[in-house]
Design goal:
With about 550 residues, this protein is mainly alpha-helical. It has helices at about 10-40, 50-90, 120-130, 130-140, 145-170, 175-185, 185-200, 220-230, 240-260, 265-275, 280-285, 300-330, 345-365, 370-395, 400-405, 455-475, 500-505, 520-530, 535-545; strands at about 235-240, 290-295. Strands 1-2 form a two-stranded antiparallel ribbon.
Amino acid sequence: MAPIPLQHPVSFISLATVGIRLISTVYLIYAVGVSLYTSYKSLGPAQDTRSRLAQRKRLVPVFLGLSITALFLATYTSINSAVLSYRTWAYEHGLDQPERFIPEETLFPEPVNSSILDPVYIAHWLSDTSPYFDNLEIVAEKARRFWWGQQIDLATIAFSFLLSIEGRRRNVPLTAAFLALAHLVSLSFAQNLFFLVLLLTPAPLSQGKESYGLPVVPSSLIQIRDKYFPPKPKNWYLNPLAFGSALALNYSSTFLLPLAAETPSFANVVFFTRASTFLPLILPEIAPTSWGTIHTHPHDAYRPLTTIYRTVSFMSFVYHFKVAIAGIITSIPNSHHHRHSVFFTWDTEERTNWERSSTAVGKVLGSIYDHPAVMAVGWDVLICVFSLGLWAAVRATNTQHIIYSTYLNYGFKHKFEYPVEDNKEPGTPVKADPELSEEVTPEHPMTLRHPRRSTKSRVGSAASSSAHSEEGGRTPGKRRGRPKKTKQPEEEKPYEPAPSEARDIVEGDVLPASEPDWESAALTWGIAAFSGLGSATAGVFGAECVSR
């Protein structure tokens, strides 16, 4: 092949884009680290009771290790993709390539032929090729590769809703930074970092905390923001129909990604797909108060939240099923016939079909080794699935909550109630008390409690009834006239907070389980294997938002 001459000058816009992306990634990692440190320093003394802090600290190294592993794999695969892209570009332009970019003898050798490592050529390569969009296009151009990449896109949509809901509940700073890192680095890296935030922020952070090195927003800008976008009241949640527009944009752009591959509009579609995932974070801030509902009780918002995640789970399942079928169909090889096949009917009609279908499934799963870019998203999916199941296990997430938040709940009539536990260790099954008419929520700090009938009143009523029975036993004869009515003591009515008081109560967090609940993890991994990462993410994150 004849070498392609260098015709175009160096584009400084392309170089600036690459530099901004690298600098933004480093700064966002630093900002998220500051956010984690702020959450850690804000843990109050109440969180050190009943081994709360000890149990949370026990899980911090686990998810921190998963995030570091995800960062290492993302960096390794990105470097391999960039090196492969540059070598391909250099080969097309007829540049001499050494056998090794870094010889084994020393790290700083005297280059024999350094033309390929000339910074001018590297600048030309970055001007002609965008490594970021090039890797995304390689993943989207084949259905079997897009089977891996689409799972990350669908799970990112569910992750953005978790950031919107839990970030606002806990007053977590820089929630948009986690979503940006999911696009710039990997979803598994950002997801495990936010799991650390949930562990270290059991109660909402108070406003005005120290920035610890981050730039402070001037008060004048805050006043301008509050003037045009006033803060929302407590327990205000945006109407799920308003989120429907965001979901429509998310899934429309995801649908267009494989169609736009190898076309000039691919970069625009990618940008639109990434930008639309920020809508769940932006809409609650800019929407007027009339677009939402102020719930009297924090738990009243559970039904709309479950509706959102159920919709995300259903759409993720439909998209995953579609791309799985397309990947298998496009990977089925031609039937293989040998010269003796005419005498082997079973071989031709049955075994050949089985071999073709199994080969197609193997090609879809094995496409993770097609290219370093596909390997990056493949490992991202695997780490996300593992950490998602582990999170459900250590939080002892109720399996009913997971099912309520997925499409699996469709077609089953149920009473939408969330079982609550008495003051027991996490993971202990709840036993209903027929004598009680009210339910009790876990006794976590800053958690709304529904008081039940006091023990004294029950004991008193039992004692009085036994006394009357004994008194009746002393006078077995019947008296004339109207029988004397026994005055029963009035039972104490449970305390019901006023609407204004209930609105100001802050929801508490779920105490991590002392022993992992592997049943929740198995359910999560089963949904991920059958319906894809997006559907499983919606189920676990939906349960996370309502398990209080």
